[in-house]
Design brief:
This protein is 38% helix and 20% strand. With 355 residues, it is of the alpha+beta class. Bound molecules: nicotinamide-adenine-dinucleotide (NAD).
């Protein structure tokens, strides 16, 4: 039977788990809160279910508790940063804070971040920027396992390379809820396959190929090794165009950051490294604040005035589903399936904590 938890209860449990694994309290709390917020936002794939993997990565030495971001190069509005294998939730926020300083000085900042351990839900970073009425773009590569097939390729060659764009909608007194587009360039996020596999559910046709390159609806092909010891792969979203964006994320997040691209066979290591190119822009510094604000709102109104397509609930802008999920789940609590909970309990045992 799945369990329901109040968000605060889950956050406290995870905080204890990360402290037992070596994080100082502030770090443990920040990582726990970030994962719970992903669940609240409707993205269980990037929520508390990641905690056991983080614990394994710490035990293997691939994730370093209490590490901080290192400034490798500093050219004012251009920053080269190294996450030093620290928690992505921590070094990613430190990178954004550094970028924000530069935006205040120069109106924009372009930064690269290498060697961050898993950054989690990328939308969190964009939300930090839009909160300040700034635009934020993120191109990210993933080094852990080659789980996504190239367009017309028959096996996994790279990661789920997320892309995220946050745009404030209306500035100052006209401000409305922001546009936050945040997605994996695979047809679905890998973590959603773990969630579906744990629930014993099949997935949409067209999402996966098996270990022999044939289409399948079994999410387990990318979660557990198959009969021949190999894994299947996720398909890229948007056919050749989505594949192209995934390659761009690998080149910008991996090659340009200095963190590296994926070009090797899979191994069993549990760490997940993200490289990210981040661009933060203050629209006011562009000298078009007023028209940027009014044009964005006019376009949103125009879109929303479209009649509903039959059988749908009409047009939504990116960011709306996550906000709606947060409202609902704050009241209803977070559902955790048995497998995910058992994995969290087992992770506790590994670091001497009884959950
Ligand atoms: P998804 O397919 O659920 O798409 C989410 C995006 O689409 C959001 O911006 C959402 O607001 C928007 N959206 C959803 N329904 C919509 C609708 N009806 N109308 C308009 N917009 C709509 O997301 P995903 O691809 O499964 O990715 C989930 C999360 O996984 C993301 O937060 C991503 O950052 C994260 N991720 C992280 C990594 C990593 O290595 N750190 C890797 C892959 C994915």
């Amino acid at each position: 039977m799945p369990k329901h938890f109040l968000p605060q209860v889950l956050e406290d449990q995870l905080c204890q788990l990360f402290e037992a694994a070596g994080s100082r309290q502030a770090e443990a709390r920040a990582v726990a809160a970030n994962l719970v917020l992903a669940n609240l936002s409707g993205h269980d794939s990037h929520g508390i279910g990641m905690a056991p993997r983080y614990i394994d990565a710490i035990c293997e030495g691939g994730l370093i508790p209490n590490a901080s971001v290192h400034i490798r190069t500093d050219h004012g509005m251009l920053l080269g940063l190294d996450g030093q294998r620290g928690f992505g939730q921590i070094v990613g926020k430190q990178a954004m804070d550094l970028a924000f300083e530069r935006v205040r000085q120069h109106g924009a900042c372009i930064y690269s971040l290498s060697h961050a351990h898993h950054l989690g839900r990328i939308g969190h970073f964009a939300e930090m920027a839009v909160e300040r009425e700034w635009i934020s773009l993120h191109f990210v590569n993933v080094r852990s396992r080659p789980v996504v097939a190239a367009w017309h390729g028959g096996d996994g060659r790279f990661g789920t390379n997320p892309c995220c764009i946050g745009i404030p909608m209306g500035l100052g007194p006209d401000r409305r809820e922001p546009f936050v587009l945040d997605f994996a360039t695979s047809r679905v996020a890998q973590g959603k396959m773990r969630v579906a596999h744990n629930l014993g559910k099949a997935v949409e046709p067209g999402t996966l190929i098996d270990e022999n390159g044939h289409p399948t609806t079994r999410p387990g092909v990318v979660v557990v090794p198959q009969s021949n010891g190999r894994y299947g792969a996720l398909m890229p979203f948007g056919e050749h165009k989505g594949f192209g964006l995934a390659v761009a994320c690998e080149l910008l997040g991996g090659a340009l950051s200095g963190g590296g691209t994926w070009h090797q066979d899979a191994d069993d290591r549990r760490s997940v490294y993200n490289g990210m190119l981040g661009i933060v822009i203050d629209p006011k510094a562009m000298g078009v604040a007023e028209s940027f604000s009014s044009e964005a709102l006019a376009f949103a109104d125009w879109l929303k005035a479209s009649p509903n397509a039959p059988g749908t609930d009409g047009v939504h802008l990116a960011g709306e589903p996550e906000r709606a999920a947060r409202q609902a789940k704050q009241k209803l609590g977070i559902e955790v399936d048995d497998n995910t909970w058992a994995e969290i309990v087992a992770a506790g045992h590994k670091v001497g904590l009884k959950i």
